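Q: Here's a chain of 413 amino acids. Please give me its 3D structure as tokens.
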Amino acid sequence: MAVRNGIIKINEYIGNMYSKLKVNIFNINTPISLFVTTTGVLLILCCLQLKAQTVQTNGSLSTDIITGVPFLLIIPDARTGAMGDAGVAALPDQNASAINPSKLAYMDQPYGISMSYSPWLSNLKADINLAFLSAYYKIDERNTIGTSLRYLSLGTVQLFDANSQDLGNYSPNEFAFDVTYARKFGNFSLGTALRYIRSDLVSGQLSTGSSGYAGNAIAMDASAYVRKPTIIFGTDALLAFGLNISNIGTKIGYNDAGNKFFLPANMRLGAASTFIFNDENEFTFSLDLNKLLVPSQPVYNDDGKIISGKDPNVSVPAGIFNSFSDAPGGAGEELKELSIGTGMEYTYHKKIALRGGYSYENPEKGDRRYFTVGAGLKYQLFVLDLAYMIAGAQNSPLANTLRFTLTFSPARK
């Protein structure tokens, strides 16, 4: 991928992907800053429910949700990934900090370590990859602490100046470092995470003449997990509910012009039921709903005035509360902004696991639709999980995406 005078020349590389993904990223024939363009490319590469485009000035009814650092919404671990990304209420594991930190309070082992890796969107570019490291430690029966590191590499970008002189290569990347805490209260637990985010997408002077620099932000999560033993259809079961409100924090910017982007604040609400047939066989169903807690873009007229929707230039608290009622299309469009994930998991003797799931997002709000399958195998103190993504949308760059996770934990107390 080449950059000339701060302009990424993506016409030949992924220009036709924009129409296939129904994403209108900036006018690529117009000189724009490396900051803006690289951010747009990142939004496509992450292929989340975030669609980046310039403000509408033609009365179009197409509206989008624009945020920075959308990699924070990628589910990094293979177990949850194989279950349609539905895991906020599923049985806890070492990767709980990525989807619901409060579940760590229910871990049986005194500590655990997990490593996940995915060659993300290899259909688009071979050197994009996502890595995730996490660990936890139980202080006592009720209190658990943890930490995690999420790292996204966007590969190598070739840079040129205005005279087409080669300025060398640049490797944009992003990472987030978390510290988590969870506490159990009988049949429920509460958890929180404090997150530092660094997004290094730009290098040096932008074409606008302003300085570009890495974006930094601070965020937090607030989560809850409730589960109760019960009997369903005459079978012993665990019924669980989970909630995680994530990435509540400062806006992030990349240049001196003062442009700031919302973090992808998100509310994930879900339920799961685990049927325990006997000591060897368990079956879990899970369902998650997701809602971004950031402003929807309004519809503008030719004069740049809002004709439908609300002004997105608001504070973070206002953006969160307005996100439930600011869609230009009203309640119907708000419902379209919900994404759904559902999954199943069968485990035998707590050593072999088979998984499957489906994730759906409205075509007007991102169009992520895919089936997932996966498996897990435990050998002594190690567990290896694999997830494979089967895209439901035509020409989706998410097709054939793999995720791998290796976890370690000692024997139960």
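Q: Can you summarize the key feature?
A: Helices lie at 15-20, 34-46, 78-82, 316-322, 331-336.
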